[in-house]
Design goal:
The complex is a heterodimer of chains A (about 375) and B (about 90).
Chain A lengths: L2 H14 L3 H7 L4 H9 L18 H14 L1 H20 L2 H7 L9 E4 L15 E5 L2 E11 L7 E8 L2 E8 L5 E5 L12 E11 L11 H37 L1 E2 L2 E2 L4 H29 L5 H27 L9 H12 L6 H13 L3
Parallel strand pairs in A: 1-4
Antiparallel strand pairs in A: 2-3, 3-7, 4-5, 6-7, 8-9
Chain B lengths: L9 H16 L17 H15 L16 H14 L7
Helix pairs in contact in B: 1-2, 1-3
The chains are: A alpha+beta (about 375), B mainly alpha (about 90).
The complex binds flavin-adenine dinucleotide.
């Protein structure tokens, strides 16, 4: 790992300290922590240097994401949102928009990305939020659900229909017609600032439409999600590492029936599976990051594979860790209890495990 | 494979794209078929298509160039590649 990445890891470890448990219980991240990380460019470390960002490649950024993920799933979720917003702006925005918006994301501002709607979850083609253009202004109307980090965000990227195609609109949180309704009781990533976002005839200047809009909706969605999937996958690696460390520590120190728990084969098997899961997820993520950094042809499949494998192993690994720690890990807020709840959500978001299976099957079948 | 200073003959671009689409979808393609219509590319392959175009023809497709009009058919995509290669630095933005 490069020196800058190690340094950033130390910075975030110190910033989080032992507070992640409290943040989970309170359901909120301290604003100063988010601001400090955002100002250092560490919420979206792949923003290129020409926009003032750290300009890390996917592999380095991934290792850092895992580090944050091992400390606090909520903070890592906010990073995922910020990075996805940055990548979407970089890819879909025109040069003037990138020059205007990306420096904000490395100097303290935060952003969130809104795709999902009540009737459009896995099936984003059912979305009804729409943007229309008249003269020099656009009008955006619709309701988005479960937008990670919306409670903290200075601006939102809202995915909408634009006639028969798609579009992404940059919406300042304070624009007239925008309402952010916090979701108070999420199962996991409890401090990630999830919210429903209502957009009521929000009128904005035309330059708030990334790249002028009218991109194919599937292209726009996969582009944004590709970054989100990488970030979630590496975050799952982090959860697995935290769970492995907790399980190893406990199995080595706690004694029952006159010996350490790890000397009982059934407990040892949990440890073996956790370690295997962490290794498998790491390799899948490393491969996907290499594909990302090389712009490889089959990047799409590598990214979905990494997300699918990592989320599944994180959910299974977190459950195993809770089993090994037993009563010692069943307090809300405890690292393995958090991972148990947080990891389950990783099988749902950014393409559920089932949607990943369908995509991977489609990929395999098309190679006949 | 070309560099950004080279121009690829439009025919060669079309042949390459038809091959790419055939490999990805397992069906035959013509230069005028609707790429994102029914039986067309899945969303997983949509991004691969952009990456493929960028890598194979040494262009950068960002901003306004990602509009659907430019991707509707193989014919349109070959026009996009030609325009971006002529622009030289890859990508005109919007
Ligand atoms: C913690 C959290 C954070 C989120 N953050 C964001 C965010 O930042 N931005 C945003 O836009 N959205 C966000 N979401 C929404 C998330 O993207 C959706 O929940 C997800 O896409 C699934 O949609 P759904 O919940 O409507 O489930 P549904 O689509 O209703 O699916 C229900 C179940 O059916 C399965 N299913 C659906 N269709 C098929 C099929 N064709 N074949 C097989 N199985 C199928 C699904 O896999 C799932 O198991 C978040 C959600 C959560 C829980």
């Amino acid at each position: 790992m490069r020196e800058a990445v190690a340094l950033a890891g130390a910075t975030v470890t110190e910033l989080v300290g032992d507070r992640a448990d409290d943040w989970d219980l309170a359901g909120e991240l301290p604003r100063d922590v988010l601001r400090k990380l955002a100002e250092a460019g560490l919420l979206a470390a792949q923003i290129p240097a020409r926009y003032g960002g750290p300009g890390w490649n996917s592999t380095d950024s991934g290792e850092f994401t895992a580090e944050v993920g091992s400390l606090c799933g909520s903070l890592r979720s906010v990073m995922t949102a910020q990075g996805m917003a940055a990548w979407t702006i970089e890819r879909l925005g025109d040069p003037a928009q990138a020059t205007r918006l990306l420096p904000r994301l490395v100097s303290g501002d935060t952003a969130a990305v809104a795709f999902s709607e009540e009737q459009a979850g896995s099936d984003l083609s059912a979305m009804t939020t729409s943007v229309t253009v008249d003269g020099s202004a656009l009008t955006l109307t619709g309701r988005k659900t479960w937008v990670t980090a919306a409670c903290y965000a200075d601006f939102l990227l809202v995915v909408a229909r634009m006639g028969a195609e798609g579009a992404v609109v940059v919406v300042p949180r304070t624009a007239p017609g925008v309402q952010v309704h916090r979701i108070g009781d999420p199962l996991g990533c409890r401090a990630a600032g999830h919210a429903h976002v209502w957009l009521d005839e929000v009128r904005l200047p035309l330059d708030h439409l990334l790249g002028g809009g009218r991109q194919p909706l599937p292209l726009l969605v996969t582009t944004a999600l590709a970054y989100g999937r990488m970030s979630v996958a590496w975050g799952c690696v982090g959860m697995l590492r935290a769970c492995l460390a907790a399980a190893v520590e406990h199995a080595g120190s706690r004694r029952q029936f006159g010996r350490p728990l790890g000397d009982h084969q059934l407990v040892a098997r949990h440890v073996a599976d956790l370690w295997a899961g962490e290794q498998i997820a790491t390799r899948a993520c490393e491969h996907a990051s290499r594909c990302w950094d090389a712009d490889a042809d089959d990047l799409g499949a590598a990214v979905v594979l990494a997300k699918y494998v990592s989320a599944q192993h994180a959910a299974a690994g977190a459950a195993a860790a809770v089993q090994v720690l037993a009563s010692a890990g069943t307090r809300d807020g405890h690292v393995v209890a958090r991972a148990y709840r947080d990891a389950k959500l990783m099988e749902i978001i950014e393409g559920s495990s089932e949607m990943c299976q369908l995509m991977l099957a489609g990929h395999a079948l098309s190679r006949r | 494979m070309t560099t950004s200073s080279d121009r690829t003959a439009p025919d060669a671009v079309q042949t390459d794209l038809v091959q790419f689409l055939t490999r990805r979808t397992g069906k035959d393609w013509t230069a005028d078929d609707d790429v994102f219509g029914s039986g067309g590319l899945s969303s997983l392959h949509a991004m691969e298509l952009v990456v493929h175009l960028e890598r194979t023809f040494g262009v950068s497709i960002r901003g306004g160039d990602l509009q659907k009009e430019n991707f509707r058919t193989v014919q349109r995509m070959s026009e996009l590649v030609e325009r971006l290669q002529t622009a030289g630095d890859g990508g005109t933005g919007a």
